[in-house]
Amino acid sequence: MKLRHLLALGLGGATFALLLAEPSLAQSPVPEAAAVPAAAPVPAKGDTAWMLIATALVLLMTVPGLALFYGGLVRTKNMLSVLTQVFAIACIVCLIWVFYGYSLAFTNGGGLNDFVGGFSKAFLKGVDPNSTVATFSNGVVIPEYVYICFQMTFAMITPALIVGAFAERMKFSALIVFTILWVTLIYFPMAHMVWYWGGPDVVGNAAKALAAATDEASKKAAQDALDAVNADAGFLFKMGALDFAGGTVVHINAGIAGFVGCLMMGKRIGYGRDLLAPHSLTMTAIGASLLWVGWFGFNAGSNLEANGSTALAMINTFVATAAAAVSWLFVEWALKGKPSLLGMLSGAVAGLVAVTPAAGFAGPMGSIVLGLVAGAVCFIMCSTVKNALGYDDSLDVFGVHCIGGILGALATGILVSPALGGVGIPDYTTKPGELVVGAYDMTAQLIIQAKAVGLTLLLSGIGSAILFKLVDLTIGLRVTQEEEREGLDIADHGERAYNY
């Protein structure tokens, strides 16, 4: 014990003498916080892990989810063709996305920045494992590669949705050419207009600089900088349009394109006369179930991090889907006398579509109401209205995705209201560095939502019509009557889904 005491005393004395010799060593080795520049935020492992899972879930929606959902709804002779179309679109768009799609959607486009990005990140130039992108919380980022992959899955599924509108009658070669043109000229600009912005930290830092400015010259310079930050965003984002996970970008966009395509291609041979029933509702049920599971990545993943808003988007994706499935089921039961599996599955997809733009903005009770309305409205569109107008939308892409998307986009402007259980309009400038609820006017927000819907319908509707016509004039859109009667499995691909 004596040795220990002597050793402790010696070390203590040496330390005291050292401090006397160099007083600065007695001070804290960490400078004052004000003198240290704020460290750049780094991704949290939890947020990164969640977004990797969400990305895989969205891929699950396309292959095999959408492929099986659509495949089961067509006739046996066209099952393999639908699987091939969906899988091929996913692979081709995946490559286009990393070549130039990500850059067109999520970079500054110079003079065209309101409508489309540029090529500064073509072939993922400048992106590496250390690159990060903003989320919706100040000081929170995720790896840019994760964001690229997540948004890639959205680009992959959107043109695949269009396939259902003209299933069983379009040439495979024409579909591939149309898809390449459509994602380049319509999808990427839409994604840019709705989702491109600088992020909360860029806005917050500019607002902080303005608040800290003391004289008129510095205030003007700071205000100009804040204005420039706010101007570096897509047209619809700057307008204030709310679209949490793709009501305009994905569903209305694909739905109206499909509707235009089915009108321009005409009806299937035998439509309205022959039985064109689904060949396997079992496959369709499997596909619809996978879509619901994958949609949690689609909606909850669109929050870009793991927090309470993510949980809100998840519960809304549960309850709106269930409400729409029940709504379609009982409306169909009341009007047609029997509750059908296909009706319930279609209702579930309608609920998923409708809640997509509202998932992170509405409250759970509002989402239930939205689901109940979506199920009933989409049923009427896919039965009464479709039969009255006589168009052949093979798998009800317009009635479910376009109409459900419109309903959800408009309802988002209502359900975001805090008085109705919504989270309110996000505001990053009133208290720089924080996310607070901004001013909300229901009528004004509804007008903004309606403008976003209208622009999407015009851009995708007119643009798709032009692209369909160009493809038709060059290689032709539709297979021959003989090929259609034989089935696209053999005519286009030389193989069958089933050999028995």
From TrEMBL:
<protein>
    <recommendedName>
        <fullName>Ammonium transporter</fullName>
    </recommendedName>
</protein>
<keyword id="KW-1133">Transmembrane helix</keyword>
<keyword id="KW-0732">Signal</keyword>
<feature type="transmembrane region" description="Helical">
    <location>
        <begin position="446"/>
        <end position="468"/>
    </location>
</feature>
<keyword id="KW-0472">Membrane</keyword>
<dbReference type="GO" id="GO:0005886">
    <property type="term" value="C:plasma membrane"/>
</dbReference>
<dbReference type="InterPro" id="IPR024041">
    <property type="entry name" value="NH4_transpt_AmtB-like_dom"/>
</dbReference>
<feature type="domain" description="Ammonium transporter AmtB-like">
    <location>
        <begin position="49"/>
        <end position="498"/>
    </location>
</feature>
<feature type="transmembrane region" description="Helical">
    <location>
        <begin position="368"/>
        <end position="385"/>
    </location>
</feature>
<feature type="transmembrane region" description="Helical">
    <location>
        <begin position="174"/>
        <end position="197"/>
    </location>
</feature>
<keyword id="KW-0812">Transmembrane</keyword>
<dbReference type="Pfam" id="PF00909">
    <property type="entry name" value="Ammonium_transp"/>
</dbReference>
<dbReference type="InterPro" id="IPR029020">
    <property type="entry name" value="Ammonium/urea_transptr"/>
</dbReference>
<feature type="transmembrane region" description="Helical">
    <location>
        <begin position="342"/>
        <end position="362"/>
    </location>
</feature>
<feature type="signal peptide">
    <location>
        <begin position="1"/>
        <end position="26"/>
    </location>
</feature>
<feature type="transmembrane region" description="Helical">
    <location>
        <begin position="145"/>
        <end position="167"/>
    </location>
</feature>
<feature type="transmembrane region" description="Helical">
    <location>
        <begin position="50"/>
        <end position="70"/>
    </location>
</feature>
<comment type="similarity">
    <text>Belongs to the ammonia transporter channel (TC 1.A.11.2) family.</text>
</comment>
<keyword id="KW-0813">Transport</keyword>
<dbReference type="InterPro" id="IPR001905">
    <property type="entry name" value="Ammonium_transpt"/>
</dbReference>
<feature type="transmembrane region" description="Helical">
    <location>
        <begin position="82"/>
        <end position="102"/>
    </location>
</feature>
<dbReference type="InterPro" id="IPR018047">
    <property type="entry name" value="Ammonium_transpt_CS"/>
</dbReference>
<dbReference type="GO" id="GO:0008519">
    <property type="term" value="F:ammonium channel activity"/>
</dbReference>
<feature type="transmembrane region" description="Helical">
    <location>
        <begin position="310"/>
        <end position="330"/>
    </location>
</feature>
<feature type="transmembrane region" description="Helical">
    <location>
        <begin position="244"/>
        <end position="264"/>
    </location>
</feature>
<feature type="transmembrane region" description="Helical">
    <location>
        <begin position="276"/>
        <end position="298"/>
    </location>
</feature>
<feature type="transmembrane region" description="Helical">
    <location>
        <begin position="397"/>
        <end position="426"/>
    </location>
</feature>
<keyword id="KW-0924">Ammonia transport</keyword>
